[in-house]
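Reproducibility note. Readers wishing to regenerate the assembly model reported in the main text can use the exact inputs given here. Chain order matters: entities are listed in the order in which they were concatenated for prediction.
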Amino acid sequence: MKDLEIVDVQSFSTSVPVANSYVAYQIYFRLGVPITLTIGKLGSRDFPAGDYVYTGSARRNIRARVLRHLERVKSLHWHIDYLLSSPVVSISRIILSTSSECKLNNSTEGRVIVPRFGSTDCKEQCGSHLKYIDENSRTKRQSGTEVHPIRKA
Ligand SMILES: [Zn+2]
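Running the prediction on these inputs yields the following structure tokens for the assembly.
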């Protein structure tokens, strides 16, 4: 049993088995062009083009939750739904983890650009569960290992 698993989007959509000890997930995606979205109580927000990582959790049936995120057309329930239903978003990979979502989020490189995004019920002052991966963290990632810098639980 691994602490962390990186799954490409294709195999996740088909038949990869998901261990039920995974409680948190990350969705890495790229925004092709800058967009402005009106997101519930967050209001109107600007999202620059570039790479993002969203961290979420599902205590039960994490596979179904992630598959829902991969659907382009759906009801807009969570903050992330507004972004991922955009036609200019392409999801690159999924990470599954046995760490709590906040621990996973805090150990991930990236910059908060929309405070409180996806972290309405966050208990660890993450600031946001959406991070923007700027040039600085991208450079680190390329010079390091293939895997993102996520510490073990
Ligand atoms: Zn948090």
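We highlight two features of this model. Residues 4-143 form one domain. The beta strands are 4-8, 24-31, 35-39, 43-47, 50-57, 89-97, 130-133.
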